[in-house]
UniProtKB/TrEMBL annotation:
<comment type="function">
    <text>This protein is part of the stalk that links CF(0) to CF(1). It either transmits conformational changes from CF(0) to CF(1) or is implicated in proton conduction.</text>
</comment>
<keyword id="KW-0472">Membrane</keyword>
<keyword id="KW-0139">CF(1)</keyword>
<dbReference type="GO" id="GO:0005886">
    <property type="term" value="C:plasma membrane"/>
</dbReference>
<dbReference type="InterPro" id="IPR000711">
    <property type="entry name" value="ATPase_OSCP/dsu"/>
</dbReference>
<keyword id="KW-0406">Ion transport</keyword>
<dbReference type="InterPro" id="IPR026015">
    <property type="entry name" value="ATP_synth_OSCP/delta_N_sf"/>
</dbReference>
<keyword id="KW-0378">Hydrolase</keyword>
<dbReference type="GO" id="GO:0016787">
    <property type="term" value="F:hydrolase activity"/>
</dbReference>
<dbReference type="Pfam" id="PF00213">
    <property type="entry name" value="OSCP"/>
</dbReference>
<comment type="function">
    <text>F(1)F(0) ATP synthase produces ATP from ADP in the presence of a proton or sodium gradient. F-type ATPases consist of two structural domains, F(1) containing the extramembraneous catalytic core and F(0) containing the membrane proton channel, linked together by a central stalk and a peripheral stalk. During catalysis, ATP synthesis in the catalytic domain of F(1) is coupled via a rotary mechanism of the central stalk subunits to proton translocation.</text>
</comment>
<keyword id="KW-0813">Transport</keyword>
<protein>
    <recommendedName>
        <fullName>ATP synthase subunit delta</fullName>
    </recommendedName>
</protein>
<comment type="similarity">
    <text>Belongs to the ATPase delta chain family.</text>
</comment>
<keyword id="KW-1003">Cell membrane</keyword>
<keyword id="KW-0375">Hydrogen ion transport</keyword>
<dbReference type="GO" id="GO:0045259">
    <property type="term" value="C:proton-transporting ATP synthase complex"/>
</dbReference>
Length: 177
């Protein structure tokens, strides 16, 4: 996966810079999201791989995505097909979304709790996390009974384990030391 990310980074960066310049970040994000799903589809990948050359691959891909791709999006597909990189489109879409979030000062935070969080708890948590990360926070809440109580918060590389299970594990480690 890291190899695809390395391949995808220059394409995503170029697309993002163009999108910022033209003021079309949201439409580019939608185009790349759709194209990434098409490229990751097993049937579409098999059909594209069976075509004789990059031009045929690009033409078919553009026909499949005709309504979703503008002229610049079609050019990106052509360049990636010429370089044999259509398989990297899902990674391009993901990197573009990351660039967009960074640019818009947003962060996606996964919150795991033992029971569902009510709206008031989510609002309080969002306010505290926005203060801590100095960014706009988008919560993805899920439940896991193994947490027992408290929360596990994951934001990028940061993990805040305030769960009862986590505290018990830290206590056990401390007692064994």
């Amino acid at each position: 996966m890291s190899e695809l990310t390395t391949i995808a980074r220059p394409y995503a960066k170029a697309a993002f810079e163009l999108a910022v310049e033209k003021g079309t970040i949201d439409s580019w994000n939608e185009m790349l999201f759709f194209a990434g799903h098409v490229a990751s589809d097993e049937q579409a990948s098999a059909i594209l791989a069976g075509l004789p050359n990059a031009t045929a691959q690009a033409e078919l891909f553009i026909k499949i995505c005709a309504e979703q791709l503008n002229e610049q999006g079609q050019n990106l597909v052509k360049v990636m097909a010429e370089n044999g990189r259509l398989v990297a489109l899902p990674a391009v879409a993901k990197l573009f979304a990351n660039f967009k979030a960074e640019y818009e000062k947003e962060i996606e935070v996964d919150v795991i709790s033992a029971t569902p969080l009510v709206a008031a708890q989510q609002e309080t948590l969002v306010a505290a996390l926005e203060k801590r990360f100095a960014r706009k926070v988008k919560l993805n809440c899920s439940e896991d009974a193994a947490v027992v109580g408290g929360l596990i918060i994951k934001a990028g590389d940061t993990v805040i384990d305030g769960s009862v299970r986590g505290k018990l594990n830290r206590l056990a480690t401390t007692l064994q030391s």
